[in-house]
């Protein structure tokens, strides 16, 4: 076997990058190693604001084998590891890796918590979605890893509901509130009541204080159910 390969890199949704040709690769193993090494080289240059020049390059298998351990983790390998280690789906992984630094933030959070499934959902579906809604790139994310972890812990311990978690996250992003989840909830008077007797007492009080609305519901006005909630 003897073959050549052209390699270029580019960020998602950007034009294709400048390609470099690798010549005289003599095995499938060398081919794969050469591509990995060239991808890493080009990413490293672009990350350092250096240009990629179109050129023909040789491949020194011994050199690459010697320095393979020092190469940065490549995006595809990193995605595979995240799916394997943290249980992310392909879609969640693709969403996470669209934003620079989001994967680093995610891994810092995941390493500090055992609630992997909750983390995946909150990071991918909530934090990134709300940042996008505020037109903030992830590099300007104001929510610290510790703050996000406090939300997850409060959820896990049933101190707050999912609805309150979203409101707290919004405070952290929009108001730049640097307190943890429970402190923010306490400051706003938000709490989760789970005692059945307390809930029943509140419901009875609500019904007693709104006799007109109760009568309308009894007469078939189902729209008022939402008002009571």
UniProtKB/TrEMBL annotation:
InterPro entries: Asn/Gln-tRNA_amidoTrfase_suB/E, Asn/Gln-tRNA_Trfase_suB/E_cat, Asn/Gln_amidotransferase, Asn/Gln_tRNA_amidoTrase-B-like, GatB_C_1, GatB_Yqey_C_2, Gln_synth/guanido_kin_cat_dom. It comes from the Eukaryota. Residues 104-229 form the Asn/Gln amidotransferase domain. One of its GO terms (cellular component) is glutamyl-tRNA(Gln) amidotransferase complex. Keywords: ATP-binding, Ligase, Nucleotide-binding, Protein biosynthesis. It catalyses: L-aspartyl-tRNA(Asn) + L-glutamine + ATP + H2O = L-asparaginyl-tRNA(Asn) + L-glutamate + ADP + phosphate + 2 H(+); L-glutamyl-tRNA(Gln) + L-glutamine + ATP + H2O = L-glutaminyl-tRNA(Gln) + L-glutamate + ADP + phosphate + H(+). The keyword Lipoprotein does not apply. GO terms for biological process: glutaminyl-tRNAGln biosynthesis via transamidation; mitochondrial translation. GO terms for molecular function: ATP binding; glutaminyl-tRNA synthase (glutamine-hydrolyzing) activity. Allows the formation of correctly charged Asn-tRNA(Asn) or Gln-tRNA(Gln) through the transamidation of misacylated Asp-tRNA(Asn) or Glu-tRNA(Gln) in organisms which lack either or both of asparaginyl-tRNA or glutaminyl-tRNA synthetases. The reaction takes place in the presence of glutamine and ATP through an activated phospho-Asp-tRNA(Asn) or phospho-Glu-tRNA(Gln). Heterotrimer of A, B and C subunits. PANTHER family: GLUTAMYL-TRNA GLN AMIDOTRANSFERASE SUBUNIT B MITOCHONDRIAL AND PROKARYOTIC PET112-RELATED, GLUTAMYL-TRNA(GLN) AMIDOTRANSFERASE SUBUNIT B, MITOCHONDRIAL. This is GatB domain-containing protein.
């Amino acid at each position: 076997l003897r073959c050549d390969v052209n390699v270029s890199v580019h960020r998602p949704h950007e034009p294709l990058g400048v390609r470099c040709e690798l010549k005289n690769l003599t095995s499938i193993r060398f081919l794969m190693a050469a591509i990995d090494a060239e991808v890493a080289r080009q990413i490293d240059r672009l990350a350092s604001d250096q240009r990629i020049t179109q050129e023909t390059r040789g491949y020194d298998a011994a050199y690459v084998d010697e320095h393979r351990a020092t190469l940065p983790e490549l995006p595809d390998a990193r995605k595979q590891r995240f799916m394997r280690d943290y249980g992310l789906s392909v879609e969640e992984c693709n969403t996470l890796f669209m934003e620079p630094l989001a994967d680093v933030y995610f891994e810092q959070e995941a390493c500090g918590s055992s609630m992997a499934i909750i983390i995946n959902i909150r990071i991918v579906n909530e934090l990134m979605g709300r940042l996008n809604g505020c037109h903030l790139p992830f590099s300007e994310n104001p929510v610290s890893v510790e703050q996000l972890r406090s939300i997850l812990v409060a959820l896990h311990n049933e101190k707050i509901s999912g609805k309150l978690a979203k409101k707290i996250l919004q405070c952290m992003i929009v108001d730049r509130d640097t307190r943890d989840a429970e402190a923010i909830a306490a400051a706003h008077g938000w709490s989760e009541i789970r005692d059945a007797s307390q809930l029943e007492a509140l419901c009875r009080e609500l019904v007693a204080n709104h006799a007109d609305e109760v009568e309308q519901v009894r007469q078939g006005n189902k729209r008022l159910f939402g008002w009571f909630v």
